[in-house]
Amino acid sequence: MSKLQNFSLGKWKKRGLVSTLLAIVFLVATSAKADIISLYNIGNGNGIEDVNNNNDNINLFQLLNNYFADQLGDNLYSSSNQLYLDLGVDPNQTWTTNGSQLVGAFKVADLGHEMSMVGSSGNVVASIASMGGTVNIGQAGGITDLSGSAITNIPDGLDVTFKLDAYWEDNLVYSWSSNPEGNAGTQWNPLVGNFTGDGMVHMLALDITDFYNTKHDTWYESVFMFAWEDLHLKATGGGKQADWDYQDFVAIVTNVQPSGAVPEPATLAILGLGLVGLGIARRRMKN
Questions:
Q1: Between vectors from CA 144 to CA 63 and to CA 129, what angle results, nearest 5°?
Q2: Cα atoms found within 13 Å of the Cα of residue 263, Cβ hemisphere only
Q3: Which of 149, 153, 250, 274 is most exposed by smallest CB count within 10 Å?
Q4: CA geometry: angle at 268 spanning 205 and 246, to 5°?
Q5: Does residue 213 sit in helix, strand or coil?
Q6: Best-predicted range by mean pLDDT among 50-59, 172-181, 255-264?
Q7: In this model, does residue 201 exceed pLDDT 60?
Q8: Is the distance from CB of 128 to CB of 114 less than 8 angstroms?
Q9: Between the CA of residue 225 and those of 49, 170, 246, 261, what are the distances in Å?
């Protein structure tokens, strides 16, 4: 075989190896994104609802579009499901604090809300509350940058989950955890009596690091938007049922990192197949 043929064959083998690598990266990435919605039963298995129920006036994707309009340009999101497939991360995990701050918030719901960061022993590390009725923390449907009133005294190195307490006339109505397993017990609702937690995903987590840093000219390692659905899956006694729009209470937290993320079995399987393929490709290159 001539040198030219050897060079040409080697070049095509290398191209084949690169193509294999790119295919593996694509499959793993798309599988992980699909798993976010399919495995965690978001929106009662039907996705995130974008119908404006109960005069909510703004959807989650519209809220983010408004807040990051300059950064998004013409690439605005047209649905909350599209938004979550692009920016969503697994909400069902613990988060590690590292110079963390609560820097922004938005609220639109009849219920009062208090979102807390909860330590491993159940202690409240930090919280932000709005106890009024249907009001925006901010103006014209925008997120308030807490700036001077940002919550900054959050200890470093803590593993935390998030909790949303929902109140009606100073009575605790619902208490949801970012971990759906924390929503499975029986709780007392002063409006309808006892109710059984629905075990559903009540909090979404969106990675908005790049958008936020560009908007504010900051260099945070990570910035996440935590968006809540505050109503129960199966309301009884005349209570409103969940509409799964995840814009009832939204908070922005800087410098928290997911600490409990574990690759899904499907993702691991694809990665394993890809590694096998790489091994075969390398062997052929040597031969």
A1: 105
A2: 12
A3: 153
A4: 15
A5: helix
A6: 172-181
A7: yes
A8: yes
A9: 18, 26, 11, 17
